[in-house]
Amino acid sequence: MNTSDFWKKQNPDTPLFEELVWSRPENKAQAGKLLIIGGNLHGFAAPATAHNLAQKAGIGTGRVILPDALKKIAGSILENVEFAPSTPSGSFGVKALDQFLIDTQWADGVLLAGDLGRNSETAMLLEKYISKSGQMLLTITKDAVDYFKDTPALVLDRPNTTVVLSFAQLQKLASSYGFDTAFTFEMGLVQLVNALHALTEKIQAGIIVKHLQNILVALNGEVSSTFLKEDVEMWRVETAAKAATWQLQNPNKVFEALTTSIVS
User: For 173, phi and psi rounded to 5 degrees?
Assistant: First the structure.
């Protein structure tokens, strides 16, 4: 198969699927509800930034859940924030599951934004949450991805899921999943596109990764690449917030929505 059959190249200044831009909801009440989960006692920049960027991307309503260890610090800083039980070290504890599930019922989509820290109890919580979250639209990024490096099928075989990850995280997740092509930093763009095409024909989740100054979107064997004119320091958080917003607003055109979100 020729790469032109599944590879779309998007100009950084012009959305490839421009019709999605013109058909966006004009009323905030119809623009979707996004639940953002993240943070630990030592940092909550990722969920806070994701909330701000989702607002700029046009989400109708955003809500953030942080560990309750952050209540004194973040309670007066963030709007639309709720707090869930934390461990003694300040990460989410397993008792946060009920709060996660209640707010998931409210939301149209969920973003695991990261800054979760490393905690075995948080790992158990996320595994239970993924198992109980049903078919909810889910976007995962930053260190939230690392929690599934030993159980990659939980997210890669989950429908309605988008994983925004670094190239190193892609290497580990694909290898742990048992994918037979190695992702290497020496890969050229064409090689990477072919590998992402093959991987996403086997899995249900979508993949967004940055390599060689391109952001690549892959879903169901389709791949798009967008050349970055300048590097973005927090590209995973920014990309995930926009991707989550566009995906929940265009649930029937997910590949197109994810691709468009890169230049929105």
Answer: -65, -45
Rounded Cα distance, 175 and 182, in Å: 7
What pLDDT, in 10s, does the model give residues 82-116? Answer: 999 999 999 999 999 999 999 999 999 999 999 99
The DSSP secondary-structure symbol of 2 reads -
Beta bridge partners of 216: 209, 225
Q: In 3D, which of 147, 81, 139 has the Cα closest to residue 119?
A: 147
**What are the percentages of helix, strand and coil residues in the chain, rounded to 5?**
45, 20, 35
DSSP secondary structure letter of residue 94: G
* Domain 3-261 class, CATH top level: alpha beta
**Closest of 252, 245, 253, 243 to residue 31, by C-alpha:** 245
The Cα–Cα gap between 247 and 93 comes to 29
Contact yes or no for 109/139 (Cβ under 8 A) = yes
Residue type (1 letter), 179: F
> Which three-class secondary structure state does DSSP give residue 197?
helix
Residue ranges per structural domain of the chain: 3-261
Q: Percentage of the chain with pLDDT > 90?
A: 84
**pTM beyond 0.90:** yes
Question: Under a CB-based contact definition with an 8 Å cutoff, are residues 161 and 140 in contact?
Answer: yes
> Average model confidence (pLDDT) for the chain?
93
